[in-house]
Amino acid sequence: MPENNFEIRKRAMNIRRIRLEREKAVFMELGAKLRAYLFTGILVTAPVAITFYMAYKFIFWVDRLVNEVLPPQYKFDNIFPVTVPGVGLIVLVVALTLVGMFAAGFLGRFFLRLGEWLVYKMPLVSTVYSLLKQVFETFFSSKTQAFKKVVMLEYPRKGIWILGFVSAELQGEVKENLPSEMVSVFIPTTPNPTSGFLIFVPKKDVVELSMSVEEGLKYVVTGGLVEPKDKKKNKKN
To answer: Which region holds residue 92: left if phi is over 0, alpha if psi is between -120 and 50, else beta?
Structure first.
């Protein structure tokens, strides 16, 4: 009898252990699925939420800035009974458009040249103004593009490839002092493509890519996570 009781208890303990292991496996599988669902939810909602939050903050920042500049009788609080987001941004866009229209006219061009002449007479201010003007003209002018094309080149040594952007055609003193036909390539950093460095590379050593400049910037910003579409495959299909 004692042996039979021992066998029964042993069998019951084995059954209980097996049941606990199965329950543990079920809970672990459920936890893994819930964790995967959580990460998927974050990946889906985080970009949208961050974008809307940044837009919200930017709009209210512009509204507050414009509202502080306006005279007291034209402040938004005195005109609108409730807070209307985006009014300051609309006022700013309209004001900049009117300034652009005035600057495009004869009288506007005269005052603009007069102001620039005065600025260029100031030693330190002229350097800052000239640099900022060139940057804004490069990025906002419709006649030029900041970057021409996306390329790959071996850098900093053979066997290691890096993504770059052809910035402009070489001209003047730089072109005259280079030994062969070369191109200026801007090498951006990840995840901030506005910082980087400029190098001059022989044209034969760069590999031109079919991706657009916008796709190349996305590729750099995301650290290679967002791959550009393969235009060659799309053409074949």
So the answer is: alpha
User: In whole angstroms, what separates CA 86 from the centre of its chain?
Assistant: 23
For the stretch 71-109, pLDDT in tens is: 887 787 778 777 778 888 888 888 888 888 888 888 888
End-to-end alpha carbon distance in the chain = 79
CATH class of 149-228: mainly beta
Q: Which two tokens stand for residue 228?
A: 């550009």
Mean pLDDT of 186-202: 84
Distance CA 165, CA 156 (A): 16
pTM: 0.50
Taking the CA of residue 98 as centre, how many other CA atoms within 13 Å lie in the half-sphere pointing to its CB? 6
Q: How many CA atoms lie within 13 A of 233 on its CB side?
A: 4
Q: What is the DSSP string of the chain?
A: -HHHHHHHHHHHHHHHHHHHHHHHHHHHHHHHHHHHHHHHHHHHHHHHHHHHHHHHHHHHHHHHHHHHHS-GGG-HHHH-SS--TTHHHHHHHHHHHHHHHHHHSHHHHHHHHHHHHHHHTSHHHHHHHHHHHHHHHHHH-SSS-S--EEEEEE-SSTT-EEEEEE-----HHHHHTSSS-EEEEEEE-SS-TTSEEEEEEEGGG-EE-SS-HHHHHHHHHTTT-SPPP-HHHHHH-
